[in-house]
Amino acid sequence: MQSSLRVRKSKLKLKSEINVVPYIDVMLVLLIIFMVTAPLLNLGVNIQLPQSAAKAITTDKRPVVVEVTEDGHYFLDLGGGKREPVNADELKAKVAAVMRVNPQAPVFISGDKRASYNVVYQAMVLLQQAGVPKVGLASQPDAGDTHHGRG
């Protein structure tokens, strides 16, 4: 009787190993999927951005306007209508001083449409470093737009 119990116990003994073969199969399938889709993620898509007849922002505070020229130079208008040429360090220092006095002052970037995107982006980075919480992009209304945003 004891021998039959021993035989049964040895047959019922559980394995303490994990079968990793299914996990390896799943991993290889995922690896193949990622290898096939990764090159497709870097492709660009040609898009045409929508044109808008957005209404102008009205504010009672004098806005700070940073103008970016086609050749990458900065001009700063602190709200008095007087444009002064500045370099990157001066721009950051002067706008930071304005933000310390009036943290809610609206700040706009007015970039030449022929200016490089990188130059406008660098101006935005400088303004962020100066402590500006929000930056608006200034533009002119579309001359050919007779719709004016009404349906």
From TrEMBL:
GO terms, molecular function: transmembrane transporter activity
GO cellular component: plasma membrane
Regions that span the bilayer: 20-41
Ribonucleoprotein recorded as keyword: no
Keyword Transmembrane helix set for record: yes
Keyword vocabulary terms for this entry: Cell cycle, Cell division, Cell inner membrane, Cell membrane, Membrane, Transmembrane, Transmembrane helix
Domain of life according to the entry: Bacteria
Any one of the GO BP annotations: protein transport
Subcellular location: Cell inner membrane; Cell membrane
InterPro entries (UniProt xref): ExbD, Tol-Pal_TolR
Membrane topology: Single-pass membrane protein
Main location class: membrane
Function: Part of the Tol-Pal system, which plays a role in outer membrane invagination during cell division and is important for maintaining outer membrane integrity.
Subunit description: The Tol-Pal system is composed of five core proteins: the inner membrane proteins TolA, TolQ and TolR, the periplasmic protein TolB and the outer membrane protein Pal. They form a network linking the inner and outer membranes and the peptidoglycan layer.
Family: Belongs to the ExbD/TolR family.
Protein name, per record: Tol-Pal system protein TolR
Native organism: Metallibacterium scheffleri
